[in-house]
Design goal:
By secondary structure, chain A is of the alpha+beta class. Helix content of chain A is 36%, strand content 20%. Chain A folds into four domains: 221 residues, 2-Layer Sandwich (Heat Shock Protein 90); 69 residues, Helicase, Ruva Protein, domain 3, CATH 1.10.8.50; 148 residues, Ribosomal Protein S5, domain 2 (2-Layer Sandwich), CATH 3.30.230; 50 residues, no CATH class. Chain A starts with 11 loop residues before the first helix and ends with a helix.
Chain lengths: 553, 553
């Protein structure tokens, strides 16, 4: 009943006394919808996504061919335990608490490098949501060497955004994975990580399900072997399900890891004045010229000198001593200097071949094609776009109705994006292409119609998402243009296929017509010409051949 | 040229060494589109909005009738200095650096109270954007007593999210405001705050302009006197503009402040398990019963005992010593206990009268109406919805075309929301009402059509925004329902007006018909009956009267 009165007349002093720091954990706890934890279905999906992203990033950095198992176990009518296990390098003991129970902590934010994780929020936010809804802790198993493994349980102290360690012990855990095919042995690895979080949640089927996410994950990561199962509670009144539901396994389409990617320095044309000033202050170089060369990409000694001359600054001056006014001149000089575009070897495309392999593996269809665009640049950040298409013969694939709008699978740095398609640049690009000219029905302001799945992928050292939950790509014109180019190329190829198929269909119709009437014709001619049976058969064969030649010509 | 190689094969150790904390400032600097600083136009608007929100909150808490001046001065082709001055209580010196140069710092996050600010991010983010794009500092003038004022300049150290003070001195500043009407004296106050931020920006006109924001602000805050001017640089080649462009002033519609609002304790049914556990841990009460009574709203001693009994816990136990398993039982017991709904005296509606006054002042129209709904609850948070309408006769108001969709002004805790209307629950509510039944054309899945402005306001102790930039309301069913009810009531009243207007129009048509033919009829009758001129006039008058009676009947 205690509604504390704070509504008396305030003064500057009384208001000042109430000012307080807000921890980032408190902030995201109250605003957890910003991170994708706004409803029980989405929460489970988001937790799986964050854990799988981390596993894949770690495996690739350690150059390990990834094998991952995702297990969802129902513990109460509205509760599930989400567990994700990998064969990655493991996590050293000292880092475990912060990695899993501190928001804004990670290795990927401060470098420009293509990776799935960016912010250092995801997995800790999943743990925080579990803690909020069930009071439980995040359980981690980590094995970095053959010698031993560690079992740790952590929670976030949301007041301080610091981890609290609830358990910490040696363990004999070995990452073990189900056998891929019957009769095969299960795989065991000398290193890996497993994370388990219990949370209020729901596991559903359909377009926004964990299953769909994993399926798309397998398509965009053909080097991944992935196992999945959900273990629901027995339903009251129904017979008990088998004690151990079977695992679904997505096999690898390739045994090769994506090529290793480089971290790059920022490109001078993508750096804003305030960031430039901060970088000069932080530089380890002794001279301005050295700072320009070493802290940025595409600045050769000659170019560094050119910039200094244009800004009327001594190349030997200490970068930390450049004043604000001078920094403004320097900033302008950089804008006025012609520079090479950023390096693009920092991007690892999936590649046309692998996109095709992924689509063939998971989407039964008749026509497949894929396009990998050359790298381009937005706001100083290199990026590239890839597109793919699986087109089924109408009626062939029950998942793809000919009179529905096409499905679009969206990916960013190989991570499937399931939610918020309406707010995504990829959807805008899909709608902006004139699909009618390639033979697909296309209602205005909507997706085209047809029995097809489109695949769209953006790879970048910094993917511009519209929100922290990383579900949609921002509408940069450079990005939209590249997507449109990729889709138009896909469109042209589809157009060729569709018109060939149409010609084929007409030919088939003609052929069936011929097949139907030639026997009658031959019978007539037999009478007229007085042929015997052998003569009639011979005539019939030659007629068929002749008409088929005429049709092909 | 130095693209540093980090792509060698990594180990758990080498990856661990790269893990780092990310400051919240760095995070939002890189993701500043999340805060509304994604383009130069929106940046100026957002900065004005954050500063005005703070001024209004401070004035109301100190029970001062607010007077605010907003001045935009162009300093370079792509740069503006945004200054906002108020007659509020001022800010004590010790708090100035943190209030203006530290993200996640404030007095409003940790309490449940209706206010414009919530997060403790806005004004510091505006300063950070200014610093990023121009390298300049946020300048603050603050006068808390008649004795003296303080001039402070701050920047954010984004690495640590801590303020750096660049200047700090006594000042003789007195908050001064332009004269409201010609000949009147300018107002000077013994206290107030002024903040100035220089930033890369653009000042535009139209639906997403500072002007539009301020106009709507004046409508939703009829107790506010507001001055505005923009001072652009002279255009090359054009004659110099007058040295001092005039101020636009929005006068008060009322001299009364909104009623003071209470901060409330959270309602038990809106608290999740993890938060419950944290609250028990933090409680200053010695017993569980005391903690339930004091830290929550609507828990009487009797109800507290009922909850304890249901959870099988001793009411005298120390709240800090409730274990996780016990907390779960307690949580369930709370859910199972019937409680009064949260108190709603913590909400200050604008009120039907003030909404009407605001609309009449700024939107010329023919028909006005307003509805203030009783308070309701979502997720344990009290909220209420208000709606208003200004409907112009077609052609009367050049801003309101009869064949355009209606305009919707959206407000949250008296703050206008200009962006992201497509993602807002208010837009969904507007589209879901069957406007056709009230006489407005209404294309499916769109806003209705007509020369009208709708006003929608949500007041709550915690407004559920869809993003940090606070531009759209989340789609809670309880909120949508209240909005729909308010709009349906508006619709019924509009329907009555429209059908009365239609009857009126028909009557007018009939009357003009009568007026046209009666003289002819009288002339004919004069001949037939052989009347003199006076007799004819008398007959004509009586005919008009008779026919009008017939029409009205």
């Amino acid at each position: 009943m205690a509604a504390k009165r704070t509504s008396e007349k305030e003064t500057a002093e009384s208001m000042g006394r109430r000012q307080r720091e807000i921890s980032i954990s408190e902030f995201f706890l109250k605003n957890r919808h910003l991170l994708g934890f706004d409803n029980p279905r989405k929460a489970v999906m988001t937790a799986v996504k964050e854990a799988v992203d981390n596993s894949l990033d770690a495996c690739e950095e350690a150059r390990i061919l990834p094998e991952i198992a995702v297990e969802l176990v129902q513990t109460a009518p509205d509760r599930w335990r989400v567990s994700v296990r990998d064969n990655g390098p493991g996590i050293v003991r000292a880092q475990i608490p912060k990695v899993f129970a501190k928001l804004l902590y990670g290795s990927k934010f401060h470098r420009l490098r293509m990776s799935r994780g960016q912010q250092g929020i995801g997995i800790s936010a999943a743990g925080m949501y579990g803690q909020l809804t069930t009071g439980s802790a995040t359980r981690i198993l980590s094995r970095t060497t053959a010698a031993s493994a560690r079992r740790v349980e952590v929670q976030i102290d949301t007041r301080s955004n610091k981890p609290a360690v609830l358990a910490d012990a040696e363990s004999d855990w070995r990452p073990e994975f189900p056998a891929a095919t019957e009769g095969a042995e299960a795989a065991t690895y000398p290193h890996g990580t497993e994370v388990s979080i219990e949370m209020t949640g729901q596991v559903v089927r359909g377009r926004l399900s964990v299953e769909e996410y994993l399926k798309q994950c397998a398509i965009a990561n053909p080097h991944l072997r992935l196992h999945y199962r959900a273990v629901p509670l027995p339903k009251p009144g129904l017979p008990e399900p088998p004690a151990e539901p079977a695992w679904t396994t997505y096999e690898r389409a390739t045994g090769e890891l994506p090529p290793p990617v480089e971290a790059i320095q920022p490109h001078p044309h993508g750096v804003e004045l305030g960031v430039l000033m901060q970088m000069l202050k932080d530089s380890t170089s002794r001279t301005l010229k050295g700072a320009l060369q070493e802290d940025f990409s595409r600045v050769s000694p000659r170019v560094a000198e050119e910039i200094c001359a244009r800004a009327n600054l001594d190349p030997k001056t200490s970068p930390a001593r450049v004043a604000q006014r001078e920094a403004e001149t320097l900033y302008q000089a950089i804008q006025d200097t012609k520079l090479m575009r950023p390096p693009t070897d920092c991007l690892a495309p999936i590649g046309e071949e692998q996109i095709l392999a992924g689509l063939r593996k998971e989407v039964p269809a008749d026509f497949y094609t894929a396009v990998s665009r050359p790298p381009s640049v937005y706001r100083g950040n290199p990026f590239l776009v890839e597109a793919g298409l699986a087109y089924a013969k109408p009626g062939d694939n029950p998942d793809l109705a000919a009179d529905d709008t096409v499905r679009v699978m969206r990916f960013a740095n190989r991570v499937p994006l399931l939610y918020m398609s309406g707010a995504c640049a990829m959807t805008e690009a899909m709608e902006s292409v004139n699909w009618k000219s390639y033979g697909l029905p296309h209602p205005k302001g909507a997706l085209p119609v047809g029995p097809a799945v489109f695949f769209l992928h953006i790879a970048s050292v910094w993917v511009p998402f519209t929100s922290e939950s990383k579900e949609a790509i921002a509408h940069y014109p450079e990005i939209l243009r590249e997507m449109t180019f990729a889709l138009q190329e896909i469109g042209r190829r589809l157009g060729v296929y569709l018109s060939r198929r149409q010609r084929q269909a007409e030919a088939d119709r003609k052929r069936s017509y011929i097949t139907k009437y030639i026997p009658h014709l031959a019978l007539g001619l037999q009478e007229i010409l007085g042929l015997d049976a052998a003569g009639k058969t011979d005539l019939e064969t030659r007629l068929v051949r002749m008409l088929e030649r005429a049709k092909d010509g």
